Amino acid sequence: MYQYTLKRMLLMIPTLLGAGILVFILMRLIPGDICVLRMAGGSGYVDPKAIANCHAELGLDRSPVMQFLDFIWGFARFDFGNSMWTGRPIVEEISLRFELSLQIAIMATLTAILLAIPLGTISAVKQNTWIDYLVRGFSIAGIAMPSFWLGILIILGLLITTKSVFGTPWMPPIKYVPIWVDPLYNLSMTIFPALATGYRYSAVATRMTRSALLEVLREDYVRTARAKGLVQQVIIRRHALKNALLPVVTIIGIEFAFLMGGLVVTEQVFNLNGLGKLFVASVSNHDYAMTQALVMLVVAIFIFTNFVVDIVYAWLDPRIRYK
Amino acid sequence: MTVAADVRTEIELPDRSETANWWSRVRQFVRRNPLGAAGAIVIIVMFIMAALADFIAPYNPVANAFDRLHQPPSLENWFGTDQFGRDVFSRIVYGARTALLVGFVSSFIGASIGLVLGVGSAYFGGRTDLIFQRILDVFMAFPLIIMALAVISIFGTGAQNVIIAITIPFIPRCARVVRSSALAIREMPYIDAARANGFSHSRIILRHMVPNVMAPFLIMITAFVGQAILLEASLSYLGLGVQEPTPAWGLMLQGGAEEYAESAPWIAIFPGIAISLAVFGFSLFGDAVRDELDPKLRSQ
Q: Among A70, A113, A115, B104, which lies 20 to 30 A Cα-Cα from B22?
């Protein structure tokens, strides 16, 4: 187990390094210059001397290899430097928005779990009945509906209902306040984006719960439990679900990792100032330092979640370790 | 004479039985997989819409009509008009072209490159496999929207670049699935035989291994088309995809749809239904294809 963990940990390094190389090259392939953009808004004449000064200040006059080594060395020490666009420390800029994105991601995950496990269980137990078809239809609809469209519909629904009930249309607030400062205000802002993403997310997990449970229900030990005369409910809760939830936990973990980088569209719909928005802004501003830090953060979360999932899996199922 | 008649019946018979066979197979498929059949119907309707858009759409999808802004659905404009007075129904009909083009081209190219990489990686094994897998890991972990954002920023917007942006994330996903099937095939005696015959690597990969991993490949393609349509819509919605005035469903949800959500909800509702139905159809059909091709996964 120790050896396996170590090996999996070492395998994280090349992936992180690869992602670093990829984002470094991609950013520099995008035509445009942050200094020109900063001084002239992308158009108009700018003094070449001022540009050269700006390049020197940002360290862009060095060779690409030096810039890359600097970036990786900084990452290794968790020192990301300053944003090239605002000049403020990157850690500060990210942590400002990370809270909001993390909260929505966690709430969406909770929504997904609360929907997926009961629905998936019912669907598997009542396989090929109308309940099963209904649940499967509901979950495929979740995959099919773009979350941004669901977001638009939610906003539309809110506008129409609040207008007819209170007379004035109400929209979720857009300025972030932490949940411990004003829980009601915070929830009124975050619950809708969390529902919109959570529904979609639950669809994948529901399908997984259903198929895993179907497989487990055909196992010999479930038949034994049935032969012992146990009630269906006990069989499912105590015997089947426990084993079926392993792949479900995996998929929830992996989806969570995707969510951290994938909130871009939802944030756009609800006009939230989260990581996704920062991502889009920093790419279009040619803020190399910020984009690199953000990509490394998202990739690191993704790799780390995968790592934890793998380790938990190997711990629960010893066959994996010896493959 | 008699001989000729005999010959004719002999030629005609298999032909007739083949059509009958085809029909009974379709009927069997519908009975076995009603959801998949429903998906297939949605896909067929989409294809008809795309192919016959010129005849189905009552209006020019890009013609502005400033005297008819924000018209609610009526007999003249079934789905109403948008903020430029364009007929929403016509734009949805033409939008099927964009969706199908981007969906099919990107999933086919992405899955095909993934197929070759996956089989190659499994065939060569050892260090090559290890390096390939690490590179694919990087692409898997890389945030999808950022990749798309970078591709669009480098090459510019437009359908062709959207296809590139969507193709890239599909490659590692397909490669990984195909590789695991190919690993088992590599150990088959016929691959040893091909090697003993002195065939080149490319011949063994393309002629002996690739045809045997067609099932996961086809499963991946059908699964990708729906995802590609969804991705295209998301990118267009973010303003990174197809550009105005090209009719595309995601684009129709951008700008006007949110701004006028309250006064003209039809602008937002119908394109969303179109996207959802299309992805719904491809998902159902993809599940059915998976069930048909991979009996192990049936009824999951």
A: B104
What domain count does chain B have?
1
B113-159 confidence digits (pLDDT tens): 999 999 999 888 888 888 888 888 888 888 777 888 888 888 887 78
CA distance B21 to chain A (A): 28
Q: How far from B21 is each of B25, B32, B188, CA to CA, in Å? A: 6, 16, 33
CATH code of residue B206: 1.10.3720.10
> Is B3 or B43 the better-scoring residue by pLDDT?
B43
Contact state of A148 with B141 under an 8 Å Cβ cutoff: no
Cα distance from N-terminal residue to C-terminal residue, chain A: 12
Q: Do A152 and B149 touch (CB under 8 A)?
A: no
Interface ipTM > 0.85? no
Cis peptide upstream of residue B58 (ω within 30 degrees of 0): no
Q: Is the pLDDT confidence value at B299 over 60?
A: no
Return the number of CB contacts < 8 Å for A and B.
Answer: 140
Give the chain B residue nearest A169 (alpha carbons).
Answer: B262
A214:B299 CB<8 A: yes
- Tell whether B15 is covered by a domain: no
3-state DSSP assignment of residue A175:
coil
Tokens encoding A206: 């529901």
Q: Do A156 and B268 touch (CB under 8 A)?
A: yes
- Tell me which residue of A37, A28, A29, A25 sits closest to B154, measured CA to CA: A29
B272 is a domain residue = yes
- pLDDT tens, position by position, A15-40: 888 988 988 888 888 887 777 777 76
